[in-house]
Amino acid sequence: MLAGRLDRVRSNAIRDILKVTEQPGVISLAGGLPAPEAFPVAELEAAALRLFRTDPGPALQYSPTDGLAPLREWVAARLTATHGGSFRPEHVLITHGSQQALDLVAKVLLDPGDIVAVDDPSYLGAIQVFDLFEARFLTVPADREGTDVDVLAARLAAGARPKLLYTVANFQNPTGATLPLDRRRRLAGLAEEYGFLIVEDDPYGELRYRGTPVPAIATLSERVIRLGTFSKILVPGLRVAYMTIPAALYPAFIKVKQAADLHTSTFAQRLVLETVSEAATLDAHIARLCEVYGERNAAVLAALDDHFAGLVDWNRPEGGMFVWARMREGGPSAHTLWKAAIAHQVAFVPGAPFYAMDGDAATFRLSFVTVAPDRLAEAVGRLRAAYDEVA
Fold this sequence. Notes:
The protein is of the alpha/beta class. The protein folds into two domains: about 5-40 and about 280-390, Alpha-Beta Complex (Aspartate Aminotransferase, domain 1), CATH 3.90.1150; about 40-280, Type I PLP-dependent aspartate aminotransferase-like (Major domain) (Aspartate Aminotransferase, domain 2), CATH 3.40.640. It is built from 13 helices and 14 strands. It has helices spanning about 15-20, 40-55, 55-60, 70-85, 95-110, 125-130, 150-155, 180-195, 250-260, 265-275, 280-310, 335-345, 375-390, and strands spanning about 25-30, 90-95, 115-120, 135-145, 145, 165, 195-200, 225-230, 240-245, 310-315, 320-325, 345, 350, 365. The strands form three sheets. Strands 2-9-8-7-6-3-4-5 form an eight-stranded mixed sheet, sandwiched between helices. α5 runs parallel beside α6, α5 crosses α9 (about 250-260) and α11 (about 280-310) packs parallel to α13. The radius of gyration is 21 Å and the shape is globular.
């Protein structure tokens, strides 16, 4: 009864692991969830009341497939102000989360057997989508600065012809890496030279705790589909995200979005727009987020320094939600450590599922934003106790 393509789709290991984290007493460094105590509940409540008390009809009605015009205008203006370039509202499509945006990319652009270039490792949700649409993968190593563009260039010169390249250029999931400007420029140049499209996914870009923002790849080439979301700067439950699309491709995305769900929730769009319209309020909220998450970022790095120096290597991200780590030679596999860690009531995600092809069994991801600093120190201490049992 099931479609054959389902044989290709792997289970989402993170979602499976989250079931374990529901056990009482477990400190979870697993799921990439924003901290609920940082949600702008009062602002959302006030916005909802304004909608219901003033003109509730339009907020509860059907709306255009491409999204509410004022929200698309806000997105274009915000992107232009924060990234430069010239983002236009007629190229913005409001989606039901970034995951739907990835689904639309695959539906519009991929035929079975088409090649998609991805970082190795890369975002598991994107790998799942491209697998579902029967793509073949061209994996490109990712180091502490993201996509190894030299390797990509060599593979293109040798004849590889991807239709798409997918990357998270800011605070990549899972590695936390940020692609530097010189690599972004070269990546944009390779897209122009070899004719592939870049899918630039940016859910974490505004969560920067230190360092200097880097221009978006979409400002360096017209061959870029850019994804963004309100899930990480407001709340994920509303499922409101957006994508910017080259003009020639935009009608095809509208057609496929219509077939998928007609339009993204009108009420959710209106609620987001009402909440973010005051730029000063939004910027103050993001600043608070960065303060809270930055403190937790520093806490988990300090705890790793205390407990795992000489045993494990890890990145030191300037923002985002993740620390990526790798056991040194002679250490246990991440899966072995994970089983021991659960017994010590701490959870994380082994790294192998983030690889489109052969995974690195020594790697693992820690998500730190939902755990208070003192609990992060305790979690990493528990993790070291588990390590000592299996090393």
